[in-house]
């Protein structure tokens, strides 16, 4: 029996070895085609990667030259400059479209493209206590780097400082900062107007253009009315409320009295005209 099985096993092994050699000699044509396609795709992606690296390097060099006001020497620089302009314009337009969509959610300013997308006009709307106040306009030039070409924002407003901080690296942050500060300025101005209109017994002694310092003179109720100076300081220009209130009087004991400590808190926590009306209603001032 053993002599009969052994030749069969050898025949099966030989047949398997022959099939294996046949498979190695004749690879799957579909697999070969897929491998070839992958190789071509890999070569295309490498070429694209190298091209993008070169373009990025060229644009970086050109942008550095422009920022440093260096001359563009040859045709290569000139061609690259055109490409840089197109790239920057495309990037700014995409960012502006995002800002336009965000405006519908946050408000505060409007954006309108002009000069065929080479610049954008921004309108900043200000309001206080539900009342619309002033509107300020600014045009941004999007060629090369973003620049403010013109505006009607007050000269005392720190616009240049905000531009240096955020205009180039964070356009959205720059616009939000300007909007927030303009709105707070309008709110502080409106409070001064309301004090003059509503409370004739209170005199505005001093106020600067940014309205971040306000000195008010009022008279404390009593048998003999005593003059009181209230100095409101607004260190945070994004707010309509003061960060510090200082009380002075001919009566040196008055600022430390419980009633005027309460009045000081009112001036810190409420708009100035509202606080003064409350103080008059409580009998603290004439």
Task: Give the proportion of residues in helices.
Answer: 40-55%
Computed CA radius of gyration, to the nearest angstrom: 37 Å
Mean pLDDT: 80
**Class from secondary-structure proportions:** alpha+beta
Using the coordinates above, name the CATH class of one domain: Alpha Beta
> Beta fraction of the residues?
15-25%
Number of strands: 8
| Helix run count | 7
Question: SSE order, as H and E?
Answer: HHHEEEEHHEEEEHH
- The CATH H-level superfamily of one domain is Chromosome segregation protein Spc25
Unreliable residue runs: 1-5
Alpha-carbon distance between the termini?
A: 130 Å
| Sheet with the most strands: spatial strand order | 1-2-3-4
CATH topology of one domain: Copper Amine Oxidase, Chain A, domain 1
- Multimeric state of these chains? single chain
Describe the 3D structure.
The chain is of the alpha+beta class and 286 residues long. Among the domains are: 96-185, 2-Layer Sandwich (Copper Amine Oxidase, Chain A, domain 1); 199-281. It is 54% helix and 21% strand. The protein has seven helices and eight strands, in the order αααββββααββββαα. The chain has helices spanning 2-25, 29-67, 75-106, 159-167, 171-198, 258-269, 272-281; strands spanning 109-114, 119-128, 131-141, 147-151, 203-207, 213-220, 226-233, 244-249. The strands form two sheets. The protein has a four-stranded antiparallel beta sheet. A four-stranded antiparallel beta sheet has the order 5-6-7-8, with helices on one face. A hairpin with a 5-residue loop joins strand 3 and strand 4 (147-151). The longest helix is centred in the N-terminal third of the chain and has 39 residues, at 29-67. Residues 1-5 have low confidence and may be disordered.
């Amino acid at each position: 029996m053993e002599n009969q099985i052994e030749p069969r096993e050898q025949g099966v092994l030989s047949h398997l070895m022959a099939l294996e050699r046949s498979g190695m000699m004749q690879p799957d044509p579909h697999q070969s085609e897929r491998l070839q396609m992958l190789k071509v795709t890999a070569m295309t992606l490498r070429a694209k990667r190298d091209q993008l690296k070169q373009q990025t390097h060229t644009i970086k060099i050109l942008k550095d030259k422009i920022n440093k006001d260096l001359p563009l020497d040859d045709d290569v620089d000139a061609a690259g400059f055109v490409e840089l302009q197109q790239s920057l314009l495309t990037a700014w337009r995409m960012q502006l479209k995002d800002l336009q969509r965000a405006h519908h959610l946050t408000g505060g300013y409007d954006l309108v493209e002009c000069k065929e997308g080479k610049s954008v006009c921004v309108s900043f709307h200000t309001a206080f206590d539900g009342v619309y106040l002033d509107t300020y306009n600014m045009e941004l030039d999007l060629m090369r780097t973003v620049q403010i070409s013109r505006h009607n924002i007050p000269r005392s407003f720190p616009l240049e400082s905000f531009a240096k901080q955020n205009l180039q690296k964070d356009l959205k942050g720059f616009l939000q900062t300007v909007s927030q500060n303009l709105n707070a300025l309008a709110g502080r101005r409106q409070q001064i107007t309301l004090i003059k209109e509503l409370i004739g017994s209170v005199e505005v002694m001093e106020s600067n253009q940014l309205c971040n310092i306000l000195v008010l003179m009022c008279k404390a109720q009593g048998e003999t009315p005593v003059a009181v100076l209230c100095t409101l300081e607004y260190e945070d220009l994004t707010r309509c409320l003061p960060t510090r209130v200082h009380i002075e009087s001919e009566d040196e004991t008055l600022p430390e009295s419980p009633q005027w400590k309460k009045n000081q808190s009112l001036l810190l926590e409420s708009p100035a005209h509202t606080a003064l009306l409350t103080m008059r209603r409580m009998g603290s001032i004439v």
